[in-house]
Amino acid sequence: MLLEQLINGLTLGSIYAIVALGFTLVFGVLGIINMAHGEIFMVGAFVGVMTTGVLGWPLWLAFIASIVVTGILGYLLERMTLRPLRGKKGVSHLAPLISTIGVSILLENLSHHIFGAGNKPFRTEFAEISIEIGSVSIYIVQIVIFVISIVLMIGLSVWLSKTKAGKALRATAENLETASILGVNTKKIITLTVIIASAMGGIAGILVGMAFNSVSPQMGLAIGLKGLAIIILGGMGNVKGAMVGGLILGLSETFLVAYGDSGYRDAIAFIMIIFILLLRPQGIFGSKIAEGR
Amino acid sequence: MKVLRKASLFFSVLMLLLLTACSGESTGNEGSTTEQTDEKISAKFGVISYLTGAGAAYGEAITQGLKLAQSEINENGEVNIELVIEDSAGEAEQALSASQKLMSDDSTLAIIGPTLSTEFFAVAPEADLNGITIMGTSTTAEGIPEIGDYVFRNAIPEALAIPTAMEKAIERTGAKKVAMIYGNDDVLTQSGFDTMKKTAEEMGLEILTIETFQKGQSDYNAQLTKIKNTNPDLILASALYNEGAVIMDQARKMGIEVPFVGGNGFNSPQVIEIAGDAANGLIVATPWFGESDEQKVVEFNEKYEAAYGKRPDQFAAQAYDALYIYADALKRAGEADRELFHEALAETKDFEGLLGNFSFDEIGDVVMDVKVVEIKDGKFIEFE
């Protein structure tokens, strides 16, 4: 039972972590919370359902389709709703937050109209493969989810600290104007960030579809709130924080159900936020510099 | 900048389109108000339904069932019915304000809905106070018709459906130990759970564990692992089908092979759509058996599928019947008067609807036969 629940917790935690990575990346660079991230995640899941279920594409192609579609959505998000508000006089710093909420409502209702209400099944043979260890069955999907989340975290960390683009991104995050003066194409960097974050949302979406076999237009909201809780927990704008925060939340939710009362499952994220805000407001991995942006 | 302006223009237009798309649904039949023309009785019924949000699938089925019935009734020509459909979004507050809007219109003869029992408990006392007849088509929680004189329902109560299903299931499987799982944030699933628990205790079953979940959750592995380890003979699941189907899918994947007994909200062909083979072994009691070869059921299935491209579920069937019951009462009332209509409706007896022989008891609750069905080989069949 312990092992099974541990696997459940790690699977859930890894998914939370991937969602939170997308949140944290956008926050790190732009200093805004992208409320549409949950809905982009949902679109990614639907692209997976449509390409594998209706069109009969193989899974790897579905992944690519999902990344491409959510990447394009990320581009449109930046181009149409974030850039027009950036650096303009008289625009409140809350404006981009509100406009991403608008996008999230648009996407949710759009997919409601296109796909209809209710859960859609996600059928792939890949999701059926499992290994039996004693009475415990581990699905390959669960391992894949865990591995992908680790790879994404490491990849992102390396990319941010070692590559030129990553350095430019960090410079942009540090100070947009200075980076721009020093020859960094900040427009391009910001666009790239939003695209990468959205594509990661798309990957998370398709993974959730495979692991839990439930995709609905409303799935973005719940996971979006969890993602938000995680980046507060792990530290806003921090890659490691998102990963660790995601795993902590996934594991604690699972173990609360296993050894406690399942009725309090959703409460745990918010209880954690209360404590972290009281004890360490910058989050587990956060530094105080990140504040005041 | 030019591109940008174009883009934002495009975006605004898109938003506007979406807005109109939202409001486009809210009126059924334009025109005629409550007046008699050429001896034909016209009436306006208000409908409150769960059309946006996590449970929009239920509201969709209900309004589709209503609209199908409406077009048939109006075509038939004896009475002319207009539906004014309001969205409740699954929220009691919004359902209440929608009902106030409908009730403040003097030409509203009676109300159908809202969808969830939670919402119904907020709306029905208000309607009763105003002397407006209200009928729930999907509200199966306990205590609904007891709210007042003007409150009716044609959905069979959980207190009738669940014990019947449980008795039959236990008769065949000989189960002694059961595990329970239910949604604890909804009056319907909560009330279904109470009934299940009471029945289980009366039958002397051992309850191994009780697990809960919330609306819109997608990962049930933690609860199911716990259930699996207690090794039950039977699982009692008080869930709406949307969540229930996913629960079954994840349970089967985990290696839980025992049958599930569900409440009324679990009964839908969508369970098979969503869960596939994993849906086998679901046992529910229902007034609506979609696979029946009765003439009227087959015809309804065909008409519904032709109109909406999918098979009807019990929510659609019950809504369809509800409008026919209203139309029947309207005919007997002779005119669109709230008092006369209420009296006529209360007298409904042996009404031959899609769901079978239907009557109201003294308090406005359902009197009808319940069938127990199970899913086997990807199909609903009668439980033996």
From TrEMBL, chain A:
GO molecular function list: L-isoleucine transmembrane transporter activity; L-leucine transmembrane transporter activity; L-phenylalanine transmembrane transporter activity; L-valine transmembrane transporter activity
Family, per entry: Belongs to the binding-protein-dependent transport system permease family. LivHM subfamily.
InterPro entries in UniProt: ABC_transp_permease, BCAA_transport_permease
Keywords: Amino-acid transport, Cell inner membrane, Cell membrane, Membrane, Transmembrane, Transmembrane helix, Transport
Gene Ontology process terms (BP): D-alanine transmembrane transport; L-alanine transport; L-isoleucine import across plasma membrane
Record has Secreted as a keyword: no
UniProt xrefs under PANTHER family: BRANCHED-CHAIN AMINO ACID TRANSPORT SYSTEM PERMEASE PROTEIN LIVH (PTHR11795), HIGH-AFFINITY BRANCHED-CHAIN AMINO ACID TRANSPORT SYSTEM PERMEASE PROTEIN LIVH (PTHR11795:SF371)
Domain of life per record: Bacteria
Species in which this protein is naturally found: Ureibacillus yapensis
Gene Ontology CC terms: plasma membrane
Designated name of the protein: Branched-chain amino acid ABC transporter permease
Primary location class: membrane
Protein localization: Cell membrane
TM stretches of this protein: 12-37, 57-77, 136-160, 189-212, 267-285
Range of residues in the leader sequence: none
Pfam families linked to this entry: BPD_transp_2 (PF02653)
Membrane topology: Multi-pass membrane protein
TrEMBL record, chain B:
This protein's name: Branched-chain amino acid ABC transporter substrate-binding protein
Entries under SUPFAM superfamilies matching the protein: Periplasmic binding protein-like I
Species for this entry: Ureibacillus yapensis
InterPro entries: BCAA_transport, Leu-bd, Leu_Ile_Val-bd, Peripla_BP_I
GO biological process, one term: amino acid transport
Domain Leucine-binding protein as annotated: residue spans: 44-378
Family as reported in the entry's similarity comment: Belongs to the leucine-binding protein family.
Span of the signal peptide: 1-23
Pfam family, one: Peripla_BP_6
UniProt entry keywords in alphabetical sequence: Amino-acid transport, Signal, Transport
Gene3D superfamilies documented for this protein: 3.40.50.2300
